[in-house]
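Thread: "does anyone have the structure for this chain?"

Original post by V.I.:
We have the sequence but no experimental structure in hand. Need at least a predicted one for the grant figures.
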Amino acid sequence: MHARTFLRDALGTALSQYVARAAVLLRGVVAAAALGPLGYGAWNALNLLLDYGTYTSAGALQGMDLELPPAAERGDRARGARLMAGAWSVVIAGATLFTLSVGVYLASGHHRIADPWGWGAPALMLVAVVLQLAIQYHTGALRAHGDFQRVSAALATQAVLGGGLGLALVGWWSVWGLLGGWIAG
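Reply from O.Q.:
Generated one for you, C-alpha cells below.
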C-alpha cells in the first residue's frame, strides 16, 4: 500500500509540474506577441525580481525542507514549531530587505525596469515575490507532513489559473494583466 501511495503522489506531482510548465510556456509565447520586443524585455526584467526574490530566504526554506520532515515524522511538535518560526522569520526579514533594496534602487534614478510602466509594475512584482516566498514556505511545511497531493494540486492550480488569467488579460491590459493574473492565481 505504501508503494502505491508513493507512486500516486509521484505521478500527481509530475503531472502537475508538466501542466504548470505548459501554462507558463504558453503565457510566455502569448506575452511576447502581445507586449512586443520592448515590453517583453521589460517583462523579463520584472521576472528577474521574482527570480532573485526567491534567494531572500537565505537558505532558511531549504533548511526547513531538510529538518522539518524528520521532526514531523518523530512527532516532535516543539522542534517543528521552532523550525517553522525560524524559517518564517528569515523569509519575512529577507523579503523586507529585498523590497526596501529594490525601492532604494528605483528611487536612485531612472532605471529601465520602470521605463515602460513606471514604478507600479516593479511594485506589483514585489507583491508577487512576497506571495511566492509565502507559497514556498507553506508548501515546504505541507510536504514535511506528507501532504504531497495538496501541494501538487495547489501549485498546478496556481500556474494554470495565474497563467490562464494572464493569457486572457495581457491583450487588453498588457503587463498589468500578466501581473494581476499571477497574483490572483
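V.I.: this helps a lot. The chain has a mean pLDDT of 90.
O.Q.: and The chain is about 85% helix and 0% strand.
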